[in-house]
Design brief:
It is a single chain. With 266 residues, the chain is mostly helical. Helices cover 54% and strands 8% of the residues. The chain has 11 helices and 4 strands, in the order ββαααβααααβαααα.
Amino acid sequence: MSSNLPGAPPTSYSDKLTIDTPEQTALDFAIAGIGSRFLALAVDTLIQILAAIIVGFGGSLAIGAISVIAPKAALWGFALIVLFGFVLYFGYFAFFEIIWNGQTPGKRQAGIRVIKDSGRPLTPAESIARNLMRIVDWLPSLYAVGMASALLNKENKRLGDLVAGSIVIREAALSELKASWQVGVAPEGGVPVSLGAASLTPEDYALIDSFLNRRSDLDFHVRLQMGEQILNRLKPKVTLPLDSSMSAEKILETLAYERRSSGGYS
């Protein structure tokens, strides 16, 4: 199960989401189970209830005092409390997911996070749309529709996730995220073509090896730029493939494998 282009949903799922990045490397995300999602919801709901009690109690006292001297103002006070309840219930999730990059206090406690199917963070608009769908997911009560939706698809998605193109993953997947390629292992997709790695010096190969081992820790744009810079430095020494779809990182992988498999460097 994978997605070949950023922003495109994967074609299939099991207990993990695998995404093929533009650098031709596979990234695995463990999909959060229904149990961990309900644990997160329970924590978030408890926080909401406590906030509602505090604001409701304090607001009722204030309204009671105001109603003695301004009865009409008291009506506006009650309206504000009702509005606060709506914003607290629906805005709470969107607010924290936006400022905490896909997490609420409950999700942090449960060790899960919301991301796009492409592996990228949700935009604020997508997070708001996702959480407004809680109105439907809640029906007829206690998230019955949302639970039914999650049980009927392998990605454990509720309706809000289907609308926003999002998926909930286990947070551990982000800290353990590594590219599937390893030095000394043939790049995915069959036997690589010969690119003339024998002409590379030990220093050239050390540069390639260092980049391939460190790339998982690099920012996406830094990683892309660094791969291009290294390839540009090596171009005079190697034979570039006619297949223009190969990324710079894929070419560096092929050079590393070719050099190691020939026994020229270890």
